């Protein structure tokens, strides 16, 4: 009797569980049907595109080459986007599409992301993946800046481009494809090459509400434009992150985020960092770069063939004057990795999510100390050449900045003494003993308007440890020994090579 009662209770419990599951499934199905119904009604309410062709924003863009005729899917997606951006879109549908981000970031974090304004400069492999990730994550306002077109060779790394997009400006391609995924995202397309002369207009506030950019993404692969963008953002306190070179890279585990002053093993990063340091920007800009080392059997930059040189001048071979394109070996996955790391950084910064990146080297104080040492030694050299008079050093200026110091120590001399290779307690000091006075006077001698400075140049300095610099000052600069008496031919040859590098980059100083 007890067994029958027990079995009866088990059956009732099982029936209750099944009934609850069925009811829950029915409720969820009903909610899904309601949402699908709302979306279907919204799509059906869009009028025929034939009467709207004149208002097609794709057609309004000043573009390179003819625009392929939009197919029915393009027209439908564009009209849906126009409705969504006008506010005629169910917010519940948007929140459901962003549900995973909402759970991860929280309501407040997602709201910040949805209200953000991002500028992406460069819409190739890296920029396109960053853009797609940000749009899918909820960013509502994106400005795209790029002058280039989608080519067949773009398709191995571009986030959304198809064969139908070949020949289309990259900015248009991104809007064309992403409006089908996140129709509420507003795009501001700028078909233009970024240059310092137009920086203020390209990085201006969002037109509708005057909102300042929450973040600028540098995905440019031209060094000059990249440096101009980063310098402008640095000087105008615009949050920016820069993507360095994904070309020739193959190891995704080596991609990391760090300060521009601490990046290494990356050619584009090194060249960008050198130019920025010479313009006084030594840190404060996060960059995405790879620490992967090049080696035998790995891809490398392909040299231009004789046939390419025979085709004409740099201006003739590039899409724009002085903008020459070289075939760079690119594994299609790596720009995507760079782009998603960039987007990830932007999302975390905007939403205030905790970030635990490895801290960069804090070397600014070291640069200031080295500059003070350079100043002190130059005063002694001036006194020596001016007959030991101390008054000539009062108010003496040295035409060297902390940025110059950073460039010489980190780039020209690779953070090591040129004499022994020791990387600690580094100083900079004049290499050759001057044969005549190093004092430069401007204005009436002895008057309050007189300016006194040293004729020191970047190429005159050499990196040594403090102990080596003290000996060099005593024996060479203030003593009677020659460089050949103190240093080996190998050291002298190394210093001369590094000084040539400094001379080549010295022209980049403002």
Helix content: 40-55%
Largest sheet: 7 strands, mixed
Q: Using DSSP, what is the number of strands?
A: 11
Task: Decide which structural class fits the backbone.
Answer: alpha/beta
- SSE order, as H and E? HHHHHEHEHEHEHEEHEHHHHHEEEEHHH
Give start-end ranges of low-pLDDT stretches: 1-5, 49-54, 56-60, 62-66, 311-325
Question: How much of the polypeptide forms β-strand, as a percent range?
Answer: 5-15%
CATH architecture of the largest domain: 3-Layer(aba) Sandwich
- CATH class (first level) name of the largest domain: Alpha Beta
Count the DSSP helices.
Answer: 18
General form: elongated
- Mean pLDDT comes to 82
CATH topology of the largest domain: Rossmann fold
Number of domains: 2
CATH superfamily of the largest domain: NAD(P)-binding Rossmann-like Domain
Region (Disordered): 44-73
Main location: mitochondrion
GO molecular function: ATP binding; tRNA threonylcarbamoyladenosine dehydratase; ubiquitin-like modifier activating enzyme activity
Protein name: THIF-type NAD/FAD binding fold domain-containing protein
